[in-house]
Design a protein that fits this description.
Elements lengths: L1 H32 L5 H10 L8 E2 L1 H8 L3 H14 L2 E4 L3 E4 L4 H25 L2 H19 L3 H19 L2 H22 L4 H17 L3 H22 L5
Antiparallel strand pairs: 1-3, 2-3
């Protein structure tokens, strides 16, 4: 009889165990649904937008509350962003936004010169009629922003043009590389936009890139893109040492 009772109750224990596992899976699923799909991307974008200043401490509990994520997810994100060079982790002191020196910004721009030149050439080969019209409209908007002295709008349009050229090129590997470099260098780019006279120089260079792509001339487009980054490097050198 004891063995019989054990035999009858064992399936019940298995059934309850299975039910508990289902509940646990549902609980984990419900919890995951409330966590942003990519905390790393959210923090990275906040740094790019300037929500966090260079050398500012990044407190895990504050970030968890701001982005609606668990502290474990935030901690993992900070480790990944440290590998990207956006965040600096200091032993026993946590993490902070990493400042980028002018020398490093120049190195980044030198890499961008090669990769964005490639993307401009690829875009010239792949661009459609609709995309040509889009790039022309974007170029005119940039010209108008500079003429009206709207530096912030011009800076945003600048970023949009670079992003669209990369997207049109279809070069996914280059897009990944440039996204990481953009995040590290965006503060210097905005700083350059504030230099008197720089937007007028920059918009002419960007319009040359647009012209090369819209003419479907890869050599011309690549030359214009590389020429623009050479100009950026010269402008960075003129700003002198420091970090942002």
């Amino acid at each position: 009889m004891p063995r019989g009772r054990a035999a009858r109750t064992e399936p019940a224990r298995i059934e309850r165990s299975g039910a508990n596992e289902v509940v646990a899976q549902r609980t984990r699923h419900d919890h995951d649904a409330t966590v942003p799909p990519d905390v790393t991307a959210a923090i990275r974008e906040a740094i790019v937008r300037g929500e966090f200043a260079p050398n500012q401490r990044l407190v895990e509990s504050d970030l968890a509350e701001q982005f609606g994520a668990g502290r474990g997810g935030v901690r993992t994100a900070l480790v990944e962003l440290a590998h990207e060079g956006l965040v600096e982790r200091i032993q026993n002191r946590g993490a902070r936004v990493r400042a980028v020196t002018v020398a490093e910004a120049i190195e980044i721009s030198e890499v961008r010169m090669v990769v964005e030149g490639l993307c401009a050439a690829k875009a010239a080969e792949a661009v459609t009629d609709a995309e040509i019209a889009e790039l022309r409209t974007l170029g005119e908007a940039m010209r108008t922003a500079v003429a009206s002295g709207n530096v912030l709008e011009y800076s945003e349009l600048n970023q949009t043009l670079h992003r669209r050229v990369i997207e049109i090129s279809g070069q996914g590997t280059a897009a990944d590389v440039l996204e990481r470099l953009r995040a590290k260098n965006v503060r210097h780019q905005f700083r350059l936009a504030l230099v008197p006279g720089r937007p007028s120089v920059s918009v002419t260079e960007h319009l040359a890139i647009v012209d090369g792509i819209c003419a479907r001339d890869p050599t011309r487009a690549e030359h214009a893109a590389r020429g623009h980054l050479v100009s950026v490097i010269e402008a960075l050198r003129a700003t002198g040492p420091g970090s942002v």
